[in-house]
Structures are given as structure tokens and as C-alpha cells.
Write a structure and sequence with these properties.
2 domains, single chain, 234 residues, Glutathione S-transferase Yfyf (Class Pi), Chain A, domain 2, alpha+beta, Glutathione-S-Trfase_C_sf, Glutathione_S-Trfase, globular, Glutathione-S-Trfase_C-like, Glutaredoxin, Glutathione S-transferase N-terminal domain-containing protein
């Protein structure tokens, strides 16, 4: 049986099944990337809810695994060489799980790097911009008298979603016929933009054709449906 006692996070959130991959997360657009990926791959795992509303990601135990204090993070008892490994950053975790399982990342070198390219695009652009737009449109930022920040993020979010719209022209998934970690990285963010954030009108979402069809295909996948709710909200 793997020994996780050297990881402080395992003391605060004990593993009932230490032989399984441990997921420390919350169902945000970043968090569900990993739960969706785990559901898609079928890897055995155990999910621990990190209540970000209660600042649990800033506890010493969580920071011992992710010094950046953000979800998600994982602890894999069967890492490289059979040794436990802890990882943070959702994009890095997606690549790790894809390589571990041989799924959702093309074997062809050129296609592999192009897939990673789109994951990096989501990490650097789509996620941060959509998140800022959500803050200034729905949360505390909505009360700001100066609306220029919201306009800035709305304009950039509209540009980014049209990059995705153009990419999906004639394609079922971001990489073409094959569903990959690029799709997994983006699905939750687009869903949040038009759903939870209610910002579809700000980016003229109704004028798009390819992105809504792609989102509908993605949300229809059983693993995506399950992963969107893991871990359950408190």
C-alpha cells in the first residue's frame, strides 16, 4: 500500500484509498478540467473538496502541495518510476494524465505540440480573460462605477471566443476529428461564460455557430457531465 504520510496535505485530507490518485479540487472552470479528464480516462481516483470560499487552498497543508494556493492539485501514488508525485496547475496536470494513460493527446509529434499549443492558449488567454470578465460583470467588480475594466475584458473575451469560433470551422473538436485535452481545457470556461457569468451578450455569443455546437457536443459526453460536479459543492 502506498505511503502518503510524507505529504502534509494527506494529513488534513486523509486518503481512504491511498493506492488511488488523489484529487484536491473544487468545481470551478479550472478545477473541472481535471475531474473531467479523470472521468474520461477511467483512472481510479479519490476526490477531496477544497472549499475555496473558506480559503482552504491557503492552508499550510494545501500550500505544501501547491505554493500558489490555487486548485486543482493532484497527488499520484504511482508517479514516474512508481514513486508518488504531487502536481499543480491544471494544464500541467492534463498533460501528465494524458501521457500517463496514452489518451486525449495525439501520438504524432506535430499534432501533440499543436494540442498543447491550444491548452496553453486557454491557460494564458481564455481562462484569465473570461474570469476577469466574470468578476467585473457578475461579482464585486459589477458595482464599480468605472466600467472601463469590464469593457476591456469584454472586448478581449469577444476576440478570444472568435479565435475559437474560427478554429472550429469545419472541425468537430479543436484538433479536428479527435477530442483532446484542448477541448477539456476550454469546455468549462465557455460554459461558465454564457451560463454562470451570464456574459454571453457581452461577447455576442448568439452570433456564433461553431462554438455553441462544440459546447453542446462536449456537454453531452457522460464523463463531462459527471466531471462538472466533482467534487460536489458543500
Amino acid at each position: 500500500m502506498p505511503d502518503l504520510s510524507s505529504f502534509p496535505i494527506a494529513a488534513r485530507w486523509p486518503a481512504q484509498h491511498p493506492d488511488k490518485l488523489q484529487l484536491y479540487s473544487f468545481p470551478t472552470p479550472n478545477g473541472v478540467k481535471v475531474s473531467i479528464m479523470l472521468e474520461e480516462t477511467g483512472l481510479p481516483y479519490e476526490a477531496h473538496s477544497i472549499n475555496i470560499g473558506a480559503n482552504e487552498s491557503w492552508t499550510p497543508e494545501f500550500l505544501s502541495l501547491n505554493p500558489n494556493g490555487k486548485i486543482p492539485a493532484i497527488l499520484d501514488p504511482d508517479g514516474p518510476g512508481g514513486k508518488p508525485i504531487g502536481l499543480f496547475e491544471s494544464g500541467a496536470i492534463l498533460i501528465y494524465l494524458a501521457e500517463k494513460t496514452g489518451k486525449f493527446l495525439p501520438q504524432d509529434p506535430a499534432a501533440r505540440y499543436q494540442t498543447i499549443e491550444w491548452v496553453m492558449w486557454q491557460m494564458a488567454g481564455l481562462g484569465p480573460m473570461f474570469g476577469q470578465l466574470g468578476f467585473f460583470h457578475k461579482f464585486a467588480g459589477a458595482a464599480y462605477e468605472d466600467k472601463r475594466p469590464r469593457e476591456r475584458y469584454a472586448t478581449e473575451s469577444a476576440r478570444l471566443i472568435r479565435v475559437l469560433e474560427d478554429r472550429l470551422a469545419g472541425r468537430e473538436w479543436i484538433m479536428g476529428a479527435d477530442y483532446t485535452i484542448a477541448d477539456i481545457a476550454c469546455l468549462g470556461w465557455v460554459r461558465n461564460l454564457v451560463g454562470f457569468y451570464g456574459a454571453g451578450e457581452l461577447v455576442a455569443y448568439d452570433e456564433l455557430k461553431n462554438v455553441p455546437a462544440w459546447l453542446e457536443r462536449g456537454l453531452a459526453r457522460p464523463a463531462v457531465e459527471r466531471g462538472l460536479n466533482i467534487p460536489p459543492r458543500p
